[in-house]
Amino acid sequence: MFDLPPRSVFEPPSYPNVWFYVRDTLVASHVEAVNFVIGWLRDRCGIKNDFIGFKPPEASDTQARLHGLQPWREASNPMLNHAHDLHIRYYYIALRQRHHERVPAPMPAGGHYFRFAGSVHYEVEDEHPLHPDVHECPYCGRTGMYSGAEDLFAGVHEPLGLELLLYGTIRGNRVTGIDERPVAGLSALKETHTIEIHRLRPSRPDMNIADLSVVAIDHKTAPPRGRGA
Which domain of life is it from (predicted)? Predict the structure, then answer.
């Protein structure tokens, strides 16, 4: 259904686990599509680049986070207590350079979409000395439904980040931010747009991830086919 580009296009260490598809009748260019999604996540969800120090880009074009989430204060060793970051890296320039940024709609409605990618995960906050891992944490650790995960990052941190980004929950429970308001996920975009969230199974060797989603964004009421149909 979705012919996603190979990892070699942008060469991140981890294949992007979320892809944003923006209907090309919503925006005039790929640049506008990127700005629309990143701007909405910043303004509606509070996901922004507020890192205090240098954060390795890992081949990304920009990155952002939502910090101070779900403080864990019940660790037997107080040194393990920590809050959490939702961290996302965005990939779009290489897609543009390699002409992978605009594709025919994979859905029956036809038309075209602009697309770009993100790599999102949930981990011990960046400022904590044990960043990014505390294995026994009930929120971001190899615990509960994730106790059997072989790899903490690919098997726990990435699926959790994807869940929070899409739905505003962690392990099925609603998360509140440092302002004590519920965290909005991308699903809240349905207030103003038609949104389809497709949960996919990674299907190629270069997709070194456990979970993968495509988020398709269209007009609230889809108009007749636009340009490029």
Answer: Bacteria
